[in-house]
Specification:
Elements lengths: L13 E11 L14 E4 L5 H12 L12 H8 L4 E8 L2 E2 L1 E6 L5 E9 L8 H14 L5 E7 L6 H7 L3 E11 L20
Parallel strand pairs: 6-7
Antiparallel strand pairs: 1-7, 1-8, 2-3, 3-4, 3-5, 5-6
């Protein structure tokens, strides 16, 4: 596909992001696990209210909205599917991170969701969770582990993935309805993305 150089208007009510897909094809050398008052646990058959609350606390600031739009049946089918693993990171008696690995394709794994709540950004908890994700993924007979991030995510997300051993292989522009305009997300989130009706 050929796209001419230049600037293009984003239609009213839409948002546009640069999406970068990254992959690794062999296990990386992991940095040491940071020390902190955290513990990681797998959540088998997650409760949907629990999942939605954590998804919102981790992702709304970065305009995560796809799972918010799902019906109970759609969400349950997604997060409780065979081959999908959900993890969280507990801190001070609460769950403060979301990790989702999709092993349904037997030769590769997608790191579907990865993030910590605001209170843990910059504490080392994200590194601990990533180390866990990489150990778990590469314990399987994989040929590839991949993830995507976008320009709505935390400004250090892309560099974090690269430091973790992922290498970019594709870049795309995504245009989608702004989830703050239809009530999917509160208008107050993601102040770093201008709200243009």
């Amino acid at each position: 596909m050929s796209v001419l150089d230049g600037h293009y208007d984003v239609p009213p009510g839409k948002v546009a992001a640069v999406v970068t897909s990254l992959e690794m094809v062999a296990p990386p050398v992991l940095p040491p696990d940071p020390i902190g008052d955290w513990s990681i646990r797998r959540v088998a058959q997650p409760d949907l209210d629990w999942y939605r609350d954590l998804y919102a606390r981790v992702g709304w600031e970065w305009l995560w909205s796809q799972r918010t739009r799902m019906s109970d049946a759609e969400l349950a089918k997604t997060v409780r599917a065979d081959g999908v693993e959900i993890y969280t990171l507990a801190h001070d008696g609460g769950d403060e991170a979301l990790l989702e690995l999709d092993f349904r394709n037997k030769t590769d794994c997608e790191l579907v969701l990865f993030g910590v709540t605001d209170r843990l950004i910059g504490t080392g908890a994200g590194r601990l969770l990533m180390n866990h994700a990489l150990r778990r993924a590469w314990a399987q007979p994989l040929t590839r582990l991949w993830v995507h991030t976008c320009s709505f995510d935390h400004p250090r997300a892309l560099a974090f993935y690269q430091r973790s051993g992922f290498r970019p292989y594709r870049r795309q522009i995504e245009i989608a309805p702004d989830p703050r305009l239809d009530g999917t997300l509160p208008r107050s989130v993601a102040a770093h993305v201008p709200l243009l009706a």
